[in-house]
Amino acid sequence: MNTTKKTAPTSAAKIFISYPPLSSQKGKPFLSQNRQFQWTNTGNIIYPVIPAYGASALKKLGYDVYWDDAIAKNLTYKVWLKNLITKKPNLVFIESKTPVIKRHWQIIKDIKKASSKIVDWRLKIILMGDHVTALPKESFSMCPVDYVITGGDYDFMMINLANHLYKGEKLEPGFYYRSHSKTKSLLNYSSNILNSGPFALKHHHLDVLPIIDRQLTNWELYAYENTNYKYTPGSYMMTGRDCWWGKCTFCSWTTTHPFGTFRTFSVKHTLDEVENLINLGVKEIFDDSGTFPVGKWLEDFCNGMIDRGFHKKIKFGCNMRFGALNQEQYNLMGKAGFRFILYGLESSNQNTLNRIAKLTKTEDARKTLTMAKKAGLEPHLTIMIGYPWEKMSDAQKTLDEAKSLFRDGLADSMQATRIIAYPGTPLFAEAKRKKWLLTDDWDDYDMRQAVMKSPLTHQQQEELIQNLFKGVLTPKFLIRKVISIRSLADIKYLYTYATKFLKKLQDFPKNPIH
Length: 514
Ligand code: SF4
Description:
The chain is 36% helix and 15% strand. By secondary structure, the chain is an alpha/beta fold. The protein has 2 domains: 14-195, Rossmann fold (3-Layer(aba) Sandwich), CATH 3.40.50; 227-421 and 456-505, Aldolase class I (TIM Barrel, Alpha-Beta Barrel), CATH 3.20.20. Residues 1-7 have low confidence and may be disordered. Bound molecules: iron/sulfur cluster. Residues 243, 245-248, 251, 253-254, 290-291, 321, 344 line the site of iron/sulfur cluster (SF4).
């Protein structure tokens, strides 16, 4: 299927992978791989791994690729837009999420308006991410976007679109686009939206992707401000797409990588990626696969880390589920250099874990954390409040359990957030069906306020989140932290973590900022 005429420029087309500046008094946007968008005051920044694969592969194919993360570069909107207009890219890929989609629509209008005044500027703008995967047609009616990529393999789709436009390659399923004869008027946004069929992921074999070009993608911009690193510089990778569980009803990535599509890079490719990072001087890696691969893959990877001597050179972190591994496997991870391990506790009520399809057992948390600690790992917990069915006593149970896990030295850090129903998720569909939704203004989906009805008031939710953060800081926990100091890196990390911990509290003010 050829949806557009193949026109110059050819292989030297200029491609921007852009994160335009987004300013708010609520903080900095924590976008990209973040499964739940937040404006944050912590300064944390996250390396967008999948777009980085896309950028690296496109460069290898001879395209002129520009990594344009204005959020990481702290550029003002004026400076960023001026630079973009001066460079006149042919393709601009923008990753968006629900709470910032309206801003991206306005930005696309601004860019298109500027490009319409420059005769020789052939420009196409492409939106990608979980929001547009859920609602691909919406953006065409709100702004003059040219293409929407659905599904989570942006890298493969970016390559395919560029090759389609400039080399005549067949367009893969998963694209939405305008019929070209009808796009002359910027006002007539919604005319003739076509698509290339429902997105498909399983034919994308990850090993065909190159090792990420970290220089091209300015890896150092992301190497220090992230509490997932104790040792810096740090960097991200993603060996799996995305989560072998893939069922949690609230998880925005279940829309982009639905259950049954989990794939991994081979162990060799992953180890080669680790080696490249070691050669760059990286001291700690966080792998952001939704849940890190388990079973034989995990064991082969750990043995590979040890055989290649990487366990002595770098620390490793990942996301894991309770109840997925045994003591032997945790011990192997400890030997292979794993340090940080992030678990979604979400709630300590079995009813909630069942309703959100997390389906872990409440008692598994303690068992798993005991094994991880025994293996020398430093577990981090993520907890959510504001479930439409949870009363104060239920939320209090989670708070009490979290406190007891920290008091008993089974967790080292945590993050507490409010549950949000994102478009496309099973939770959003349930919330619509049960009339739980309080707002359909996407700006409100930024975790600063409840978007679903709850037995708890806004104030109660804020207090619970604040209490979760403060409640884990028991004297016993603090004494244990001080005793555990072994090096300068430990002191630096504790200081950074404590500072960011306090800043994090500002992300949940008692009265929401609009
Ligand atoms: S375990 Fe659940 S929340 Fe975590 S990545 Fe997988 S589906 Fe998403």
